[in-house]
Design brief:
By secondary structure, the chain is of the alpha+beta class. The protein is built from four helices and eight strands; from the N terminus they run ααββββαββαββ. A hairpin with a 7-residue loop joins strand 7 and strand 8.
């Protein structure tokens, strides 16, 4: 017997009718360049907080957790994000320095998954990031830490109306 809730979930719309096309054969070889292009598309489509992503971490025993964060930058040392070292995610990253990011833009039927090792960036970079926050009041936060996820794999995923979704996976 199908529950009313299950039926309600099944009836929800999934992807928009008009999604962008994507041909992995014509994608730039640099995943950061492709990500920036997709982020620009998300901004043009009116996606709210297109720089927000779900960060998945796990503790030393492998118990996973996830939460939403904001991408700070993509540079040679990796995909940057920040949090307090004393937070749950900070503790999990200290125990198990591996994580995965997932960006999702439903208006475009797109998501990007980035997984790899995580490194701590310098105290100076962390302090500068803390001071650059919109609510910065000039006071220091010694627990604030800027991290960089160094990708082992990146997957660009484009939904298609025929359900033959396109996956473009790049691995180091």
């Amino acid at each position: 017997m199908i529950s009313d809730f299950r039926a309600q979930l099944r009836a929800l719309p999934d992807f928009p009718d008009d999604m962008p096309s994507f041909d992995p054969q014509t994608a730039p070889g640099d995943p950061a360049k492709l990500f920036r292009s997709w982020l620009a598309d998300a901004l043009a489509a009116g996606v709210r907080q297109p720089h927000a992503f779900s960060l998945a971490t796990a503790d030393a025993a492998g118990h996973p957790s996830a939460r939403m964060l904001i991408l700070k930058d993509i540079i040679d040392d990796g995909w940057q994000f920040a949090t307090a070292r004393t937070s749950r995610k900070g503790g999990e990253l200290a125990e198990n320095p591996n994580a995965a990011m997932n960006f999702y833009w439903p208006e475009l039927g797109r998501q990007v998954r980035v997984a790899g090792g995580v490194v701590l960036l310098s105290a100076q970079a962390s302090a500068a990031d803390w001071q650059a926050r919109p609510a910065a009041d000039g006071s220091p936060n010694p627990n604030w830490q800027l991290y960089a996820l160094q990708p082992r794999e990146i997957e660009f995923w484009q939904a298609r109306a025929d359900r033959h979704h396109i996956r473009h996976r790049l691995a180091r």
